[in-house]
Amino acid sequence: MIQSMTGYGKAEATLASGTLTLEIRTLNGKSADINIKSSLLPKDKELEVRKLLADKLVRGTIDLYIGFEPAAGNGAHSINADAFNEYRSSIESALGQSMNASDLAAAILRLPDVVDAKKADVIGPDEWPLVAQALDAALAQLMDYRATEGKALYADVTSRVNGILALYDQVEALEGERIETVRERLNKALEDLAAKPNPERFEQEMIFYLEKYDINEEKVRLRQHCKYFMETIDGEPYPGKKLGFIIQEMGREINTTGSKANHAGIQQLVVRMKDELEKVREQSMNIL
Questions:
Q1: Where are the domains of the chain?
Q2: What pTM, to 2 d.p., does this model score?
Q3: Is 214 a residue whose pLDDT tops 50?
């Protein structure tokens, strides 16, 4: 089953110095764009974490947030007083009044950079397995989220592709009417000109004229592209990029059908197919 590139996962690791909170958020992207938004991660572990995220999540914009809540009695020495006071001044200035000191302090301690840079050392070598375990738990939660979103994406895009095929069946049903309309239009033009063409020559020219508006090739190719779309989404673990290329080909056949339609009813069906295909395109951009 396909996965969405949108996801969220969160987990905590309880260390000697406090509680570490790891959050991972992902959005759609052409490649694995990994952003580690914290100074807490030990430098010697950054490459390891980036590789893990790239291997597990494959593709998308990936943001890793790491927060830290000091344990009771361990936080005072790690407070960044300058950052704390700057936040306090800004908040009180914005509000135009003083807040309750304890409420204000609790709120400020959760803001970025309030805990002093020394907090980067809170993850000791012996505690890294706990952090790695929390990272795995956050990733597992995120991948479950992606899988759930993927089911909804699958149901939506496959139903729309089948809808496009059903609309093309309606185009096919109008083919006879379209050809007869063209014949009547040409006959009417000849009558207005008081022309009397050779019937055999007229029929030859009619066949030649109708061949220019024939959409049998477009019908065959569109159905092949739709079949390939379904095979790809069902058979490949990460079909998103390939689906984008298939959608381009589907669009070409629908556009060519519209340019050859020469029939109001078929033109309306083409517009509906384009609308459905655009929705498929939008959704497919979030398929891993």
A1: 7-147, 149-284
A2: 0.75
A3: yes
